[in-house]
Amino acid sequence: MPELPEVETTLRGIEPYLRNVRIERVIVRQPQLRWPIDDDIQLLVGQTVRGLTRRAKYILVETDVGTAIWHLGMSGSLRLVTPTDEPAKHDHVDWVLSNGKVLRYHDPRRFGALLWVLPGEDSTHLSHLGPEPLTDAFDGDYLFARSRGKSQAIKTFIMDGKVVVGVGNIYANESLFLAGIRPTLAAGKVSKARYNELSVIIKDVLGAAIKQGGTTLRDFVGGDGKPGYFAQQLRVYGRGGEECKVCKSLLKEIRQGQRATVFCPQCQR
DNA sequence: ATGACAACCTGTGGGC
DNA sequence: TGCCCACAGGTTGTCA
């Protein structure tokens, strides 16, 4: 599930149940995630959650003695359950909370992570990241400047977290379609005008998806944890071989950097 | 430095 | 029905 809008939706869903709440127990059933969960995570026990924030696709949970950092990987999800709910397969971590809830982490592929950093310590995972796409620091001028001299394809360029965070495979495909840019173009050969359009489109697409996540927020916490966005609105992702919704040409599917790329050979040049 | 590619792990769906 | 392969929302590390 987790692209940036899903992470943002998760954050908004769990935030009211965690803020100012004490963590009574931390139960780790399976520490072998993307990186092994450090025993220091037990420092959370007895701490009150001061606040939750997001950086890229990481969710930061702040306490007085350190910050816990969740990453949902490809298949991770966080939801609130009650202590009587038996953990199922792939329910790797529980945080038992003072308000009677349990924050439960589920992740079949175990590409996610739960990290711990001390106050003032910089997480190596966050320090090298590029700007957030929904901030003013991310615009056409920035993309234009960063891309000069690059032969790398524009799709893998905008998916590079050192360039900009939060643009995953779905939204990279969709944004390039809406911008009319062929994903295989060398990033260094794309004009400033086109980068201006692309940056606006990325903001719009991510913003709209977050808004949709917001509408499913209510069932999210009590429900099955699946953000019910969006599939109907996807223009190209997952539609290789089908008709372009704009021009009826057949959408082409290729692979770039081990990821599926779908584009319209007519609309995207 | 850059960019292409493998790797981590499990589940699912298509083809035979 | 069952087996095998390819592929799935992400990120890091290695190698040429």
From TrEMBL:
InterPro entries: DNA_glyclase_Znf_dom_DNA_BS, FPG_cat, FPG_Glyclase, FPG_N, H2TH_FPG, Ribosomal_uS13-like_H2TH, Znf_DNA_glyclase/AP_lyase, Znf_FPG/IleRS. DNA binds at H90, R109, K150. Signal peptide: none annotated. Its EC number is 3.2.2.23, 4.2.99.18. One of its GO terms (molecular function) is zinc ion binding. The active site is at P2, E3, K57, R259. SMART domains: Fapy_DNA_glyco, H2TH. The keyword Lyase applies. Residues 235-269 form the FPG-type domain. Keywords: DNA damage, DNA repair, DNA-binding, Glycosidase, Hydrolase, Lyase, Metal-binding, Multifunctional enzyme, Zinc, Zinc-finger. The keyword Nuclease does not apply. It catalyses: 2'-deoxyribonucleotide-(2'-deoxyribose 5'-phosphate)-2'-deoxyribonucleotide-DNA = a 3'-end 2'-deoxyribonucleotide-(2,3-dehydro-2,3-deoxyribose 5'-phosphate)-DNA + a 5'-end 5'-phospho-2'-deoxyribonucleoside-DNA + H(+); Hydrolysis of DNA containing ring-opened 7-methylguanine residues, releasing 2,6-diamino-4-hydroxy-5-(N-methyl)formamidopyrimidine. NCBIfam families: fpg, PRK01103.1. This is Formamidopyrimidine-DNA glycosylase. The lineage of its organism: Bacteria, Pseudomonadati, Pseudomonadota, Gammaproteobacteria, Oceanospirillales. The gene is mutM.
